[in-house]
Amino acid sequence: MLRTLVFIGVGSFIGGVARYLFSRFIQFHAATAFPWGTMTVNIVGCFLIGIIYGLCDRSFIMNNDLRLFLTVGLCGGFTTFSTFIHENYMFLDEKNCLNAILYSMLSLGLGLFLARLGHILVRMCLS
């Protein structure tokens, strides 16, 4: 059990640092108050977790420790659902319903699409 927690903890650390750097990079280049950095991190995380679980479903190349490191640790540390919720709360608190709806719909729609695309790509490559 301790070994598993170490794998998840190290993955979360790497994912959290990657999230911070990637999100800041995107937001800096977006030059707008709209949270493009958080949204991009969330949809990229959905794509990555789709690829990882697709690999788990289609092959035996991952042991349980690696799967947990990549999914619960790395992707869990990388994606930012709590930040996403807070940013939507702030939009609603500022009476900016259009941005709250746009942000939620884009994040959910693109996230679902990219998670599915990750699975499809793995199936195509491993078939």
From TrEMBL:
Domain of life: Bacteria
Catalyzed reactions: fluoride(in) = fluoride(out)
Chief place of localization: membrane
Stated regulation of activity: Na(+) is not transported, but it plays an essential structural role and its presence is essential for fluoride channel function.
Membrane topology: Multi-pass membrane protein
Coiled-coil portions: none
Signal sequence annotation: none
Residues noted as binding Na(+) in the record, renumbered to the chain: G76, T79
Record keywords, A-Z: Cell inner membrane, Cell membrane, Ion channel, Ion transport, Membrane, Metal-binding, Sodium, Transmembrane, Transmembrane helix, Transport
Transmembrane segments: 5-22, 34-56, 68-85, 100-122
Subcellular location: Cell membrane
Pfam families: CRCB (PF02537)
Assigned protein family: Belongs to the fluoride channel Fluc/FEX (TC 1.A.43) family.
PANTHER family per UniProt: FLUORIDE EXPORT PROTEIN 1-RELATED
Function of the molecule: Fluoride-specific ion channel. Important for reducing fluoride concentration in the cell, thus reducing its toxicity.
Name of this protein: Fluoride-specific ion channel FluC
The species this protein was found in: Xylanibacter muris
